[in-house]
């Protein structure tokens, strides 16, 4: 074959390949019709209580084993048939963690609300982006409607807000807005030559403020840590002392973060007391309510957020307690128009001003992102299906059942279980399990060190048994080593018997280990 | 009824409500089985060429009309049945833009690859988060595998990377990493008191650098704009002049962004020439390859990225040309370990060091986010199904067909159509349509002003006719008013006849308007 013929043949092959892909697309799309069955058969969601016993949360494999079980390699020219792709999907489902198993309590989120997933699937299939009304007409109105409703609940008379890709980003929005509000010239001139700006947040607060301080050019050292009381709430007198100290050292305090629902203990800072301090010193008050913001929906527990109407902004993640699919995070601010002024710039190819509709519906320019995933519809659908009051009552139930767990832990006796806090404010319950081998011994520092190895060891057993997943953590600033942190969520809707299962399982697995 | 009895009754109601929600969950989950049919019947994806003619891309309604058509309000106690929820979903699908219609060319993305959507649906259903191997074992290995492969293709011998929520964020990763690499103390001390740091990017580049300069505390004014040549490529001599000028004015240059595939013209900066300048002045070279990074997969067009191996980092969005569902954005860096050192902090409740597996698989601490949506699997599944070479050839096809469009535009004559660029480097084709009313007139400034109203007017007709969607934009720094920007993508796989349809439709709609 001459080289010319060869080239032609190769070109022809390529054309054939492209045509083949084009003609196969109709079949490729049809595979979507089997995704639900793949997931259902793979037990990706537990639809009944009986499933919980029958289905493993995780079939844990070490990374090197996993690499043997699934051919992860991606290749230039190796293709896979639809049947092979379905087989791969089955494997992925098999070896992934079933976070929708009713016994996944490993993070701050639990089971999803199925209406959330319905909304997410539809959003994905429509594949819109949240910048303009033009591309996401229905979704942009929904985002606005949710923000309006949440502002109302929060007592922000004329607030504004945006969906962002997670709580860390929502907290960053708060910092950027506070800084812009105080020093609008930072937008153009940067921070160079300025007196160091200082922000304040409690030792129990989320690490995103430290990361944000780095990214935003403020510096982690200017993220000042405020002490907390026994329950994990910010000490207002320490806040005030730290503000004064920062001023004395030449810094300019500008921002206080209060936490509504800390990551470990679920503590709520006293917003009114902190607002008093912020008013006194003229500081922006942001609330990291990523976990605790859901209390807004509950009559009985809304008091945890008392004073929210006096704050300047807050972050809230419906993807935690409420069961919205990841990512669903809101940033809200009391200040009208500020978000637009802060983040907008002239963008001619996207936010044209000569459009044929009211461009105030193009909300994308408020964002630091350009393309932005639609996170509003799934949450809207959940609220529409159940009414937001139901979520409030599901939250009440989660808090109630967490108190029942506390009682059950107490009933089992301090020989076997030890609580980190006796009275939790929210639905986080933190505790140690004391295995038989450690009972009745003198509680020396060495004994404690052994105790702190218990949770990680049980955690390993949990992974291999696949019966339950509960997180663990130390609280180093309190000198406390590893303990379990069980966080309840709206879904699964737990009954009391489930709590006995969990404690029994910890005891059972705990006695399989050596300490 | 006494108040005591009343309270008990209310409590009972609440318990009943919670039980009812719990018992209904099995039915709620089943609705997911009908989502595919809802979407298919709602024509959310066009599976055949015939669909294109039969299905409207959008049934456009003004915001106030839309509010009448869909009851957007969310209420505390109003609930909706499954049937009502399905009806609402039908309306949402009906009034949303069908971005998977083969004639949606309004943004830098087009139709999705169905394998991407399959992966996305499974990812959503499993609802994992990308922080730890523990919660996303399969997905964390896939992310690593994709990063490894892309680094190899880019010529990064020992690179690293991360998935981020969009190109703007990926570009921010580049800026933060460059700054940390040069001045690691910024992480702790911030930018205060430093000499202003300056970054350089072309007038054609994406606006995310201006937004990032604001957020990161660098200031938009320290984002120095470099001129471009006729084709939209950065002028290296102007870059060098601007660097010197910044130095003279007391700034410290630290970062250059080169663009591979500009938003409007699809221009590729000369990476080798810019790398020479960066080496000379010791600057970090980042590439915004959000649009153009897909050329990495093509033998024939990879030359557009020549010199990528000499850069320090780049951003690439497979959710643009390749048809991965939004959001799918990669940040890659040549520097090993730097990403971890830059972004990691000690997080005890998540990144415990006493785990029972190799914690180097916990990649979440490299991120500025905490919870992070899994964006790797959908892309992995696409690459697995087709092999990445196929995407390269689909991209070649998209570029080829864009050249055919250019030819067709030329054939219709400069009386009717006018190109912004005669020879596009990538698959962006920019052009004006000259309606009959404007033909044969003297091309005065007033005539131009009238010409610049044509695209917005046709755009309005497109929305109401629902036959095709193509974006428009001005290029103000060149003194050019509104023109159409048609950007080709891997999907739909277009044939030549489709181009005639598009041009005919522009002519048809164009003659319906008054100028």
From TrEMBL, chains A, B:
Any one Gene Ontology cellular component term annotated for this protein: cytoplasm
InterPro entries for the chain: PyrdxlP-dep_de-COase, PyrdxlP-dep_Trfase, PyrdxlP-dep_Trfase_major
Keyword Lyase annotated: yes
The keyword Hydrolase appears for this protein: no
Keywords: Decarboxylase, Lyase, Pyridoxal phosphate
Lineage of producing organism: Eukaryota, Metazoa, Ecdysozoa, Arthropoda, Hexapoda
Domain of life the protein comes from: Eukaryota
Protein name: Cysteine sulfinic acid decarboxylase
Family: Belongs to the group II decarboxylase family.
Gene Ontology MF: a single term: pyridoxal phosphate binding
Chain positions found as N6-(pyridoxal phosphate)lysine: 320
Organism: Bactrocera dorsalis (Oriental fruit fly)
Cofactor: pyridoxal 5'-phosphate
Any one biological process term the GO annotation gives: carboxylic acid metabolic process
